[in-house]
Design brief:
Elements (H helix, E strand, L loop, with lengths): L12 H17 L3 H22 L4 H24 L3 H14 L4 H13 L3 H10 L1 H7 L2 H20 L5 H5 L12 E2 L2 E5 L5 E5 L8 E6 L2 E5 L4 H25 L1 H8 L34 H11 L1 E2 L5 E4 L6 E5 L7 E2 L5 E6 L2 E6 L8 E4 L8 H10 L7 H7 L4 H13 L3 H14 L4 H10 L1 H9 L1 H7 L6 H12 L3 H14 L3 H15 L5 H12 L1
Parallel strand pairs: 7-10, 9-12
Antiparallel strand pairs: 1-4, 2-3, 3-12, 4-11, 5-8, 6-8, 10-11
The protein binds S-adenosylmethionine.
The site of S-adenosylmethionine has 23 residues, from strand 3, helix 12 and strand 9.
Length: 536
């Protein structure tokens, strides 16, 4: 270097901090969350070093550094929140709040994180604590928005009262409604069917919600054409697995809760987790995480992931028409039954499970994993593809029926194309002879439901068989009592009631049925519109 050349001044720590701070802010504004976290981390380290170096010599300087550090923790928390690194984001907020207990950004971010973790009342406290500062800094509208949302979710999760009426009546336009997680009157217990199951702790009437829970991960796609659909399914499955792995690695709670699910082996020996673990406001924080390697994750997903557009489910809103797969933790404890008492409604990433018929305290909550409006033979085949032999009450009853052969003949007749009215007539006459009553009558009728549906839907068949077979309403009632409300049964009922002209009694019947089908999540007018949509 020549003598006359100027030596660049050495960068002071302050300069470097200034550069890092500008860079991190820029990345945050550009929504480059990962990079922003990295640069904020460098800034935070340097800032902490400077605080130690400065020590007690310069209190003003230390106070300035604390201010910068507090802001950096809050901003890194925001970026981590966007990356769904909730635990680390929460730790950053705590660090910031240690330095400044009422720091606006830190409190706001903490509230948002708690909201994402379904801790509604704690989130509410955080937002309330920002109010003074929000007022002074012109952020009142933002904070009020969060407060409103939080109050609504806290109320939903405490009471189980949800109302999707406006959204339904609006033709599902606009944003999907925000939902809270909710756990109703249920507990997890050893099941007579297999492993653990979900049980009612109180009488639950048809339509009442049992649980509402958000997917740990979900994936959707449009499947069309055989080849592309197979490929599309594989891609979807891979993306779904990646999302699950990411969630388990980022959140100890998710990791722990997933590890409580069945992987299909030795189900009867599995521990029974306490329902409180799954409650949205759960305070648990010490999770003993069991081993969860890739093989185990894959087996767990095989046994527990649900397809949204399944027979016992209804997808509302923009996800209709998509093939969707997801993992919903508490819903994973619900066993299958061919005489189920629950159904699910999918709204965005949430699943809402409700009673599809009245359920008694102590009764197991069950869903139909596959089509329960079909014969014992077909159901046996379907449960085989699911990897289990169905142990439900209805299967046991039908397997033990001494007149099995006669039923089989009626079913085979239907397969050969005999008159549906004739099949219904034969089954009804046979049931009289075998003295089959109550729920069991409903089981048998559900097994050849397609014949009942065809008969009641055809003027020609009704002219021929109408006086010799029971009235449609009585058959629907017995099927619903046995296997709960179902969409195809709804079609027969609604069309029948429409033909008769909807009087008060008919309307009452339709509403009662509709609550079992859709759950008590909409008011009368919206329920009517949903039922009409089904038959249009
Ligand atoms: C989503 S898990 C249900 C909860 C499970 N029983 C547990 O302990 O975690 C599905 C598994 O439960 C068992 N299962 C569910 N319904 C059944 C039924 N009706 N009969 C026999 N096994 C059933 C099967 O092993 C099935 O793979």
């Amino acid at each position: 270097m020549r003598e006359d050349e100027q030596v660049p001044p050495l960068e002071t720590a302050e300069d470097v901090m200034q550069q890092l701070r500008s860079k991190a802010t820029e990345l945050l504004l550009r929504e480059e969350w990962k990079e922003s976290v990295q640069v904020y981390s460098q800034f935070i380290n340097l800032c902490q070093e400077q605080i130690i170096k400065t020590g007690k010599n310069d209190p003003d300087q230390v106070s300035k550094l604390h201010k910068s550090l507090c802001l950096a923790f809050s901003n890194r928390a925001e970026a981590r929140l966007r990356l769904r690194d909730f635990n680390e984001a929460l730790q950053d907020c705590e660090q910031a709040l240690k330095l400044e207990t009422t720091h606006f950004k830190a409190l706001l971010c903490k509230g948002k994180i708690l909201l994402s973790l379904n801790r509604y009342s704690m989130a509410l406290d955080c937002f309330k604590a920002t109010l003074l500062e929000a007022h002074a800094s012109g952020n009142l509208e933002t904070v009020n928005g969060f407060l409103e949302k939080c109050k609504k979710l806290e109320y939903q999760s405490r009471t189980g009262v949800f109302d999707l009426s406006d959204w339904v009546l609006n033709g599902f336009r606009g944003k999907c409604p925000e939902l809270a997680e909710y756990v109703g009157a249920v507990q997890i217990k050893k099941s007579e069917v297999s492993g653990r199951g979900l049980y009612a702790t109180k009488n639950i009437d048809a339509g009442t919600l049992v649980l509402v829970t958000k997917a740990i991960a979900s994936e959707r796609g449009i499947l069309s054409g055989e080849d592309s659909s197979e490929r599309a399914q594989l891609v979807m499955w891979k993306n779904f697995i990646d999302k699950i792995v990411e969630s388990t690695s980022k959140c100890q709670r998710t990791h722990h809760l997933i590890s409580t699910l069945s992987s299909g082996e030795n189900e009867d020996e599995l521990e029974v987790p306490d329902i409180s673990l799954f409650r949205p406001e759960s305070e648990e924080s010490n999770y003993s995480n069991g081993k969860l390697d890739m093989d185990r994750i894959l087996s767990i997903l095989d046994v527990n992931s649900l397809v949204e557009e399944a027979v016992a489910a209804k997808v509302l809103g923009k996800n209709r028409g998509f093939h969707g797969v997801g993992l919903w933790l508490l819903a994973s404890f619900i066993n299958h039954s061919c005489n189920p008492n629950a159904r699910r409604i999918h709204v965005g990433d949430f699943v809402m499970v409700h009673a599809s018929r009245d359920v008694k305290a102590g009764e197991e909550i069950t869903l139909a994993y596959f089509d329960m409006l079909s014969s014992l033979e077909k159901r046996k085949e379907m449960s085989k593809t699911w990897g289990f032999h169905c142990n439900c009450k209805r299967c046991k009853f039908e397997e033990g029926l001494s007149s099995k052969q006669e039923v089989r003949e009626i079913e085979m007749g239907l397969e050969r194309g005999i008159d549906a009215g004739c099949a219904v007539y034969r089954l009804e006459e046979s049931m009289k002879r075998w003295i089959i009553r109550g729920k069991e009558k409903g089981y048998m009728r559900a097994s050849i439901w397609s014949a009942y549906s065809e008969a009641y839907g055809s003027e020609r068949l009704m002219k021929r068989w109408g006086r010799r077979i029971p009235a449609m309403e009585a058959v629907v009632d017995s099927v619903v009592e046995a296997v709960g409300s179902e969409e195809r049964v709804s079609k027969v009922l609604m069309k029948g009631l429409k033909r008769k002209g909807c009087g008060v009694a008919e309307m009452e019947r339709a509403m009662k049925f509709g609550r079992g089908l859709y759950g008590k999540v909409v008011k009368k007018q919206a329920l009517k519109s949903l039922l009409e949509m089904d038959i249009s």
